[in-house]
Design goal:
With 702 residues, the chain is mainly alpha-helical. The chain contains 21 helices and eight strands.
């Protein structure tokens, strides 16, 4: 009795010493701190990424570049990921993951500041206009300058005179800074997702891992809400605010030449990203691996038993004693093993194709709203942030919650993700029916006789009513005539006089506006929104519904990626998945989507130093067919590939079930043999005068 009491006392002291050696912060608290820090990092990177997409049209106009070049800039973020993601995912899983994430956040912040740098280097923004701000004057020079046709070139344009400062401006394109900054952002973002998700999955209990990942993914979708709202706010502010007098600006935010304060949002996003790096410096490298039930006081034997629990088959902790050379030698064989997994390969192909569709759609959706429904950039970004993105966040969180409530296995998660994607695809077909007519622009979308003709030819701009004026067909300075038709410039409208200044300028005696020649025109496009105003609310409602349904399958689909592979391959699988999707979806999708959208342009702007600039007006019908058709075609291909994926996944699950049964039978047979041997030894050593006691003891042991 004394020995037992002493032994119990020793175990109690050992348990108290084990508890005393634990850090002040419990593993549960540390995991929650990491979850909060990772959520904030996801928020910061999502905010800056969505703000980049909200400034696409601003960057196009500011640097006078077409959509495909904007696609190159947008894809440069993925190029940064491509450079380092495979090595960060593989080696980072074996090193101090929180500190590597902190370094990445700092690099993201520096890259964001570099993107804003061109604004402080280049001069003030100058746009094409015939309207001048004249102080103390109510009469401006005539837009229509009578002259002989001999001054025109063969294509009907005025001779181009290079503007001052063109030589120095052509030596270096300022958009290169935006591209390089975005590459650095991509490098910094690399460790956040694979290392952060694998850290949570390693040290969280299995039933909570899906919920935690769902929370982080939800925060990553909340970030774009603020990113697009920030884009909406900055798009209302003129690009050179504080450096020019706003009363001298003759255009409004709804004008296709307007450029907002795009640089301001990047400065704000850079500061937020820098702050997100701070918590990771104070988090531990690893946490105790959770078991089925972890007691507060633990002996070494209990700890060993918990770590060996079969419930931890998805947990994989980093080996702190593995050398760098050993890790490098294992990299290629490990990667070969990963790529030989058929289910993983099919999953990779499906997600690459679907992300091509998703990235292309999201990148140019604000622009689609601007051009197709004739909304301002500020309003398009506001609607994306307030209406569309919250539906995605709610869908991703609900998907994680449903997966936990329904206790979906791998096959259940795959079917759930496929079903939600298919329903969203069917609903997306109705977008084709939601169309708006092209804007009525004389000489571009219709002739001067109001005959509807959706085509563009430079010679169509010149007709009898403006033949006496020497006009340039490359200028874009739209005016709205009293007849409800927009004209490319006051000169092409045949206006001979103008009064007022700035936004209040009124052009009169416009020969192309009316037959009598005494009709007037005002600055800007004509507000032709009757059909679009009726259709736009339906477009927004359907967009919210489809976004919610499709995003429901986001978290189950992501957990399918984690669970369909071996635990020791998990971090590399996540990293290689991110590498492949960024390389084959993130980089090319914005480029070829932008190139196809460029083919629907009806009127290109002119650079100050010559050459084609940004598009001023699109063929909305062709834009809609190209944009929606390409998006849904890619998703159709992904559904076809899903069919062999389900077959392979079913086979894998059956093989795992068979191997588990065989393993259980082998283990059970081994235990039975041990018990029989033990019974034989006991029976040989039994005393003959205690037969009943020995029989009872054998039955108890069996």
């Amino acid at each position: 009795m004394e020995e037992r009491a002493e032994e119990g006392h020793t175990q109690e002291n050992g348990g108290s010493e084990c508890a005393a050696r634990q850090p002040r912060t419990s593993p549960c608290t540390s995991l929650r701190m990491f979850l909060v820090a990772l959520s904030f990092a996801y928020f910061a990177k999502a905010l800056s990424g969505s703000y980049m997409k909200s400034t696409i049209t601003q960057l196009e106009r500011r640097f006078d570049i077409p959509s495909y070049l904007i696609g190159v800039i947008d894809g440069s973020f993925e190029i940064g990921n491509l450079l380092v993601i495979a090595f960060v995912s593989y080696f980072g899983a074996k090193l101090h993951r929180p500190k590597i994430i902190a370094v990445g956040c700092v690099l993201m912040s520096i890259g964001t500041f570099i993107i804003a740098l061109p604004h402080f280097i280049i001069g003030r923004y100058e746009f094409e206009t015939s309207v001048r701000w004249v102080v103390n004057s109510t009469l401006n020079p005539s837009p229509c300058r009578p002259d002989s046709p001999g001054n025109l070139t063969e294509d009907g344009t005025l001779p181009q005179v290079p503007a001052s400062g063109c030589e120095s401006e052509s030596n270096l394109s300022m958009w290169i800074y935006v591209l390089l900054g975005n590459v650095l952002r991509g490098i910094g973002e690399t460790p956040v997702q694979p290392l952060g998700i694998s850290y949570i999955d390693d040290f969280a209990t299995e039933e909570n891992a899906a919920l935690y990942v769902g929370c982080v993914q939800t925060i990553s979708v909340v970030g774009p809400v603020f990113g697009y709202l920030l884009g909406s706010l900055c798009a209302k502010i003129y690009v050179d605010i504080g450096f020019v007098k706003m009363e001298t600006i003759t255009i409004t935010p709804s004008d296709s030449r307007w450029v907002g304060a795009w640089w301001l949002g990047y400065l704000i996003a850079g500061v937020i990203t820098l702050l997100s790096a701070i918590p990771f410096w104070f988090l531990p490298r690893s946490l105790p691996v959770p078991g089925p039930e972890v007691p507060e006081k633990c002996t070494p034997e209990q700890t060993s038993f918990i770590k060996g629990s079969p419930l931890l088959k998805h947990k994989y902790s980093a080996d702190e004693h593995t050398s760098f050379i050993e890790m490098a030698k294992d990299f290629v064989p490990t990667l070969r093993t990963l790529l030989a997994h058929p289910v993983y390969l099919v999953y990779l192909c499906v997600t690459i194709i679907q992300l091509n569709s998703l990235i292309g759609m999201v990148t140019y959706k604000p622009k689609y709203i601007e051009q197709h429904f004739r909304q301002s950039a500020s309003k398009a970004n506001f609607l994306m942030g307030v209406i569309n993105i919250p539906a995605v966040a709610l869908g991703m969180f609900s998907g994680g919650l449903l997966m936990k409530r329904l206790k979906l296995n791998i096959m259940g998660a795959a079917k759930f993700a496929f079903g939600t994607s298919l329903i969203g695809y069917i609903l997306s077909l109705f977008f084709f029916a939601m169309s708006c007519e092209n804007a009525k622009v004389a000489g571009v979308t219709l002739s001067y006789d109001n005959i509807d003709r959706i085509s563009y030819d430079k010679h169509l701009l010149f007709t009898d009513c403006n033949s006496k004026c020497v006009c340039s067909s490359s200028d874009w300075d739209p005016v709205c005539g009293e007849n409800g038709v927009t004209y490319v410039s006051p000169c092409l409208a045949g206006c001979t006089t103008s009064a007022g200044s700035g936004k209040n300028t009124v052009f009169s005696n416009c020969s192309c506006v009316g037959v009598a020649g005494n009709f007037t025109a005002s600055t800007g496009h004509c507000p032709q929104k009757d059909d679009c105003d009726r259709m736009f609310p339906y477009f927004l409602a359907l967009s919210v519904i489809t976004s919610f349904i499709i995003s429901l399958g986001g978290t189950p689909g992501y957990m399918l990626l984690i669970r369909c592979i071996k635990p020791q391959l998990k971090s590399l699988a996540l990293g290689f998945h991110a590498l492949a999707t960024r390389t084959l979806a993130g980089i090319p999708a914005p480029i070829y989507f932008g190139a196809i959208i460029d083919t629907t342009c009806l009127k290109w702007g002119q650079k100050r130093c010559g050459g084609i600039g940004a598009c001023r007006i699109y063929n909305t019908t062709a834009y809609r067919i190209a944009y929606l058709g390409l998006t849904l075609s890619l998703r159709t291909i992904s559904f076809i590939i899903c069919i062999p994926g389900f077959i392979l996944l079913s086979r894998q699950l059956k093989e795992e079930e068979r191997s588990a049964i065989h393993g259980a039978l082998r283990n059970g047979g081994t235990e039975l043999e041990v018990l029989r041997k033990e019974e034989l030894v006991i029976s040989n050593s039994d005393q003959p005068h205690h037969p009943s006691e020995n029989s009872t003891d054998r039955q108890t042991r069996l």
